[in-house]
Structure formats: C-alpha cells, structure tokens
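During the reporting period the student researcher (J.K.) took over the structure-prediction task from the postdoctoral fellow and processed the backlog of single-chain submissions. One of the processed entries is reproduced below for the supervisory committee.
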Amino acid sequence: MVDIKEINIDTLKKVPRNAAVAMKVLPYKEDKEAVYALCVTNTIESSEYLSFVFEKNINYSKVSQEQFNQFINKFYLAISNKDNKLNKDVIVADIMQEYISHSIDKGASDIHIEPMENQAIIRIRVDGKLLIFRKTDKVIYNSLLTRMKLLANMDITEKRKPQDGKILFSRKNKKYDIRVSSIPTVYGEKLVLRILYNQIFPFEIHNLSYNEKQIEDINKLIELKHGLILICGPTGSGKSTTLYSILKSINRNDINITTIEDPVEIFIDGISQINVNEKAGITFSSGLRSVLRQDPDVIMVGEIRDEETAKIALRASITGHKVYSTIHTNSAIEVFSRLKDMGAEEYLLLDAIKGVISQRLVRRLCDCKMEYMAGEYEKKYGEVQSGIKLYKPKGCKKCNETGYSGRILISEVLLVDRNNRDKINSFIKSQKNIDAQRELKNQCKILLKNGVISFADYLEFVEGEAF
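J.K. obtained the following structure tokens:
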C-alpha cells in the first residue's frame, strides 16, 4: 500500500480529476525516469494517456476500487457521482490536447493519424523526418477522428471524400492555426494536421546559414526595383522562411507589399496578405491579376503552379513590379526549363527573372554525436576519402534520443547577370544534361567533413532521395 507521505500534489495536478476517475488511475509521484501510479485496472487508454502527459515510463500499483476512491476523495476536491462514469469525451479531448501540445513542444510541422487494420499509428514530422509518436486502439482513433473533424468544421458523416478544415489551438499563451486534411484509406480516414507557427517571425536573412557571398547576392536582388526573384526546392526546404525573411527586411511605410498565399503562414504587420480561396474564386492567378490593380510595389505569390500564374508573374515583373515567388525544381538553373515547359516565352525568362535561390534543409547532428573514421563504404558510396574523421548520431535527452538537433540550410544563389546569362541561355535552348546540383552537393560535403551532418544524410542527399 502506498504511504500517504509519498503522494506528490504537483504530480496529481498534471492529470484532471475527471480523467483520473474515468480511467481509474492516480499518478502520485514521479522521478527522472518514471511515473508511479495507482490503478484499479491497467488499460491501454490509461497507459497512453499518462505517457502523453508525463513522457516517461509508467509503473503501476494495483488497488481495489474502494482504496482508489479513498485516495481520489482525499486529494481531489468535489468529486461528483457523474465523474465515476467512463467519460470518453473528456479522455479524447485530453488526448487530442496532448497530441498537439507535444507536437508543438517538439517543433513538429505535421501530425499524421493513420488507421491500420487493428490499431492506429500517430506519427509526427520533426526536422523533416516522420517519427512514430504513439500507437492507439481503433476505439480511441474513431473518437479522435470525430472530435477533430468537428473542431475543424468538417462533415463527420462524410467518410468517402477528402476534406479540409482548420482548428485554432492555444498553447502557452500562443495561438496556432492547424490545417486539417482527411482522406479515405482502406482502414478508415487518415488525418494530417499541419501546424502553422504564426507567432512573431524571428528570422533575418543574415542568420539563415547563407554564406557572406550569398548574403551579398541576395541583398543585390532585394535592392532591385523590379524583376522576378524565385526560390526553389522541395516541400519543407525552408522556402517560406526565406521569403518571409526577405519581406521582413523590406517592410517599410513607403512600400506597398501584398502577398497571395495558400495559406498565410506568418502574419506580418504592414503587409496585405491574402489567402487563396478557390471556392470564392481566389486562386494564385486570379489573385495576382487583382493585386496588380492595387498599386503594388512588391508582390509575393506563394507558388507558381501553372501557366497562367507564370505568365502573369513574368509580365508583371517587366512592367515595373517586384515579384517574389516559389517553384518546385531541384536546382536553380532548372527553374528556366520548368517555366519554359509551362508555356512561358523564352525571351521573357532572361528579361524578367533577376535571380534564383535554390535550397535544401539537412538534419544537423546533436552535440552528443559519435566520432568514427571513414572506411571503404564511405569511400565507395560517398566519394569520401577513407581515414578521415566523420560523425554519426548517438542520442541524448537534449535531442529526445534522435541524435539530431534542428536542420541546417544548404543553398545556391544564381544571379541572372552578365556572368551567367550565356550559360543560362544555352541551358534553356539545349536542355543539355548538366550536374545542376553540383553547388548544393559541394556544400553538403563540406558540412559532412566539418561534422555538422551524418554520412547517412549526406548520402541521402547526393543520391537524390531527399527530393
């Protein structure tokens, strides 16, 4: 039997009394490694819930229902009779709160709730990689699905068609927009929650890991009065961060800046920001056409996806407007062939586009990294000289045992100037096969040799799997 003196009120406060009563568990103390709890019955629900709250191992001591009630009545105030009934709504609400709160605390960009045949898997994307967070039974999954769809203003009766919605979430006095997407799978609806961190934007161009020459070139592009500047890279490569950093640096009272985004990710005072809303007829192309009638100095289009948007952006940039946008290509020079494939006239490309920034994000090793010497494997597959010092992930509490701590930017800045025009023009006309990503690969190898990234991440990048 647990000694009354062992009960820690601070531990108790972390679990609402209605949840404790509903699941018949009472966490009474904790140390660095584990939480100690009384339970009448040890269920999957209770184990998952306490794991969500404390992020530690759970050690149970079984007690009778009578003994459990005595502890509850002693340490929780005003326990009503209705609390003794299994309140799944309370449990599901608390579990959902923990899913999202935990993900925000870890800096996750997305939460995946995926139904399988006999269970559901919850994964979170941290530093660009999906990690298994929890597994739960289908009962909890179904309840979570219903609750999240309700909060996102989605139709809970519609299970055959994809849906989109939005949840507003508060955490530690900060508000987050969470975009919810559902899609039917063979075992039920899969949910993906995209977390938008809308708080004060902390980044500046000079602290985004660009080298001095690249910062100098980016500033040259920023100072231009007109022209199209494009940022390219795959999803999750930091394109939005770079765009917002540029907009923040030019945001002044004497400049009219308007953005068209899908959706607005960071709110910046002094800038007119428009959300794409296809139901209301606002697309990137229609929005851009309307913005051009609003006396803009600078326009930011979230992405060039189609021929119409590309042509409007190009023509706007040669008629006195400054236009920033993103596009999905693997390298800076491939932007020109991509736009040509979209139907853009060749003569416009070199006149309108003033510069392209190509970038990727690669996982940065935590300080707990382990040193080792490169061998034949590294030499064969990564063209790394054997015998040089490399590092691999280890894992510690600071990095949540992942071995990684954030991501680092690798990038290329291509200016469309007299030094590069002939090379670009030749590429546009011939589409010849060149190593378009050579600059990015070289930067990646430098990071590897400096012990910033692992050989596994380096190899993934140079083999193209990161794209």
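The committee noted the following: The radius of gyration is 27 Å.
J.K. will present the remaining backlog at the next meeting.
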